[in-house]
Amino acid sequence: MIQRIQSIYLVIVGLLTGVLPFFVNLWSDARGNEVYAENEVMVSIVFYVSALLALWAVLTFKNRKKQFVINRLNMILNLFLLGFFVYRSLNLSGGATVSEKGIGMLIPVFSIVFLVLANRAIKKDEDLVKSVDRLR
After folding, report:
1. 103 — phi, psi (to 5°)?
2. By residue range, what is the domain housing residue 108?
3. CB 3.0-4.6 Å disulfide test: which of 25, 50, 86, 136 passes with 17?
């Protein structure tokens, strides 16, 4: 449910990947135009899928193992997105200037951190349930 800390982490991931990329620029092209997630179709689809996976994981609070697996899939998806952003930033012109890389490229990093925190909390819950079952 929502009172568990992993649900809060997953809602934060959903907001980070579902809303923030469309307001924060990802990078600037050679002409100085800022590129947002809505300008790149595949990037926006990956962000939406990541947000949907996070919200799906919130809704599967009764099945902690499934929630754990969904979070792992979301981490892998964010790692691919991060790899694309690293590749893209290495191919941008003007490697010495920091202004061409947008702050939006860090969104997958923050998402991965919150997903790891959520998985750690899910593991704690699972261990607690197993220890209580052992006492019966």
Report:
1. -70, -20
2. 5-129
3. 50
